[in-house]
């Protein structure tokens, strides 16, 4: 079979994997953000107990290979808890939980690099500590964190291919199916790689736009 | 019984580790007074100011504003801090907000003022310190003197009963110092109650109603500026004033 025929025949199926991969990545980034930020706040402002819990979480999720985590949750933790999640959900949740550990450290760095006088000034105006964190610390910390955070997107995008191992119908899974159906390897993998590269590029453009939108003169890092 | 004093400080003590920074400080401030604290560096002047609004918690002693006890009030401290403004050596303007946003943010968030009203109030305070033309500039775009004037406006926007100035001109060159001192002078004239830690002797001489000389965490001598600056009784005060005058 010639390449063009194969791509014409299987192309739509492969492209369908984009939606699944993007779905995994977006879900994982959102979960990572929603959990990562409170973990960072807990590590910086929390009581000793909260700081310990946060540290253990980060240690656990950064300490295991992604594939081990995935199998651990897919074959172990979720079934034991009686949770019968589809593979897609397990993939998104594991990527998200792991992402939260990494994101939390990006945010922690951001929070800790806000000048101490900012909090002092906020308190002196009669803000409660939580109000000061919300209105003064976080808006600055998130801006400082953005360049570091932008690493998370390509990280999770490339990591998402590991969900192949539990049969999520994402790009790599579909690619290998096409390969085993057609016995054509190289061009199909190249197509798969090309899609990842394009997704990476498109996502980074979005992130640069966000950096630009929130850039403030003389504050934080200039948009790329 | 309401006392004639807007602020009463009673026997404040503070240790950092085994270093005693405040060693039983007591004084009273009447409404509209400008009290200037002078003394060598590291004698607890800044710590004293921070103990008044509890940014630093004193180990012992009491602070009263209008007969309400500020010390030991727990989470109600944020209410008292609204009544006690503070201006810092390094300005501490909120870096992510423009000048006018810096001034309006506390009225909006703390006082729950309507944004439009808060904006109007903020512009009024910026006019008061001569910064109305810089309302939309970020702190990084302001000179030190301008930033300090905005931070005074930020403090004024909460309508405080007292403002604490913690070495407000120490980070500024002489010219910028002058523009900030002018604003503070006007404030004092308008009847604002002010506690000022400074090394600006001219300011102390011309604006203060009371000068307090502190050393080693204690008040060594206090009185009207003419007395303290011209005829200090205590040898340590005399030595300090003499040294400063040489410059």
Briefly summarize what is shown:
Chain A has 224 residues and is an all-alpha fold. Chain A contains nine helices and no strands. At the A-B interface, helix 5 and helix 6 of A face helix 2, strand 6, helix 3 and helix 5 of B.
Description:
- The complex is a heterodimer of chains A (224) and B (247).
- With 224 residues, chain A is mostly helical.
- Chain A has one domain (3-214): MetI-like (MetI-like fold), CATH 1.10.3720.10.
- Chain A is 80% helix and 0% strand.
- Chain A has helices at residues 3-45, 48-63, 66-80, 87-112, 116-124, 129-149, 152-159, 171-182, 186-214.
- The mean pLDDT of chain A is 92.
- Chain B is of the alpha/beta class and 247 residues long.
- A 6-stranded mixed β-sheet of chain B has the order 6-7-8-3-9-10, with helices on both faces. Chain B has a 4-stranded antiparallel β-sheet with strand order 2-1-4-5, with helices on one face.
- The radius of gyration of chain B is 18 Å and the shape is globular.
- Chain A binds chain B through residues 115, 117-118, 120-128, 131, 135-136, 139-140, 143, 216-219, and chain B through 53, 55, 75, 78-79, 81-82, 84-86, 88, 90, 92-96, 105-106, 109-110, 138-141, 151, 154-155, 158.
List the helices and strands and how they pair.
The complex is a heterodimer of chains A (224) and B (247).
Chain A: H1 3-45, H2 48-63, H3 66-80, H4 87-112, H5 116-124, H6 129-149, H7 152-159, H8 171-182, H9 186-214
Helix pairs in contact in A: 1-2, 1-4, 1-7, 1-8, 1-9, 2-4, 3-4, 4-6, 5-6, 7-9, 8-9
Chain B: E1 5-16, E2 19-30, E3 34-38, H1 45-52, E4 60-65, E5 68-69, H2 77-83, E6 84-87, H3 99-109, H4 115-128, H5 144-156, E7 162-166, H6 174-189, E8 193-197, H7 201-207, E9 210-215, E10 218-223, H8 225-230, H9 235-246
Parallel strand pairs in B: 3-8, 3-9, 6-7, 7-8
Antiparallel strand pairs in B: 1-2, 1-4, 4-5, 9-10
Helix pairs in contact in B: 3-4, 3-5, 4-5, 5-6
